[in-house]
UniProtKB/TrEMBL annotation:
SUPFAM superfamilies: ClpP/crotonase. The lineage of its organism: Archaea, Methanobacteriati, Methanobacteriota, Stenosarchaea group, Halobacteria. Belongs to the enoyl-CoA hydratase/isomerase family. One of its GO terms (molecular function) is catalytic activity. PANTHER family: ENOYL-COA HYDRATASE, IP11341P-RELATED. Pfam families: ECH_1 (PF00378). InterPro entries: ClpP/crotonase-like_dom_sf, Enoyl-CoA_hyd/isom_CS, Enoyl-CoA_hydra/iso. It comes from the Archaea. This is Enoyl-CoA hydratase.
Length: 229
């Protein structure tokens, strides 16, 4: 269900269950976590096979869970999102077609969210008596603001790629997301890692300043800047 591939400086994690709109079972989440931990390329693309990005949790699988196993299922999804966010690779969500619920949450955990014009987004859990529990209740307002997060989560409405771009849910809307993946992968790997670590750091401002200076110094020591035009 999860295909793991490497092509030079870019790794790929493909959710390959198009007949179910790439809905994720517990086993698929485990495989996805393993994949993101295994890939060591500077850039990783996360995508779905077929006409959808990811429909989120497999509702048939969720329906069979009791309370304890449901909590573990939520924690498993959280671990995947945290692994994406904490990866040393720059992770790019390539969203083509519908992203729903957990699919939106996994995209939010990525460093860049690149959508095609056919991408759509929704948090429909409220219509099913549920809500997104893979870190979405804190990542969504962090990314789009409290007002947009409440609007999406309390109505379950679908937004298209252009509206998603306006509210900050996606980084770009392009016909060919591979151009963005290639532009990131063409940059210095150590610099990419350092920039991600710094921008993802949630320590105090003073601590971040110290870490930023140390990271910058480390990069300078690695580079032959005098011979760069």
């Amino acid at each position: 269900m999860i295909r793991i591939e490497t092509d030079g400086r870019v790794g790929s994690l493909t959710i390959d269950r198009p007949e179910k709109r790439n809905a994720l079972t517990a086993d698929a989440l485990t495989a996805l976590e393993t994949g993101i931990e295994r890939l060591e390329t500077p850039v990783v693309r996360l995508r779905g096979a077929g006409p959808a990005f990811c429909a989120g949790a497999d509702l048939e699988a969720v329906a069979a869970l009791d309370g304890e196993r449901a909590a573990e299922f939520a924690r498993r999804g959280q671990r995947v999102a945290n692994a994406i966010e904490g990866s040393s690779s720059v992770v790019v969500a390539v969203v083509d077609g519908p992203a729903r619920g957990g699919g939106v949450e996994l995209a939010l955990a990525c460093d860049l969210q690149v959508a095609t014009p056919d991408a759509t987004f929704a948090e429909p859990g409220v219509r099913l008596g549920l809500f997104g529990a893979w870190g979405g209740t804190h990542r969504l307002p962090d990314v789009v603001g409290d007002g947009n997060a409440l609007d999406l989560s309390l109505t379950g409405r679908v937004v298209d790629a252009d509206e998603a771009l306006r509210m900050g849910l996606v980084s770009r809307v392009v016909e060919d997301p591979e151009t963005v993946v290639a532009s990131v992968a063409g940059n210095d790997a150590a610099a990419l890692r350092a920039v991600k670590e710094r921008l993802r750091d949630d320590a105090s401002a003073a601590t971040q300043d110290d870490r930023e200076a140390e990271a910058f110094a480390g990069l300078v020591e690695q580079q032959d800047l005098a011979n760069r035009g």
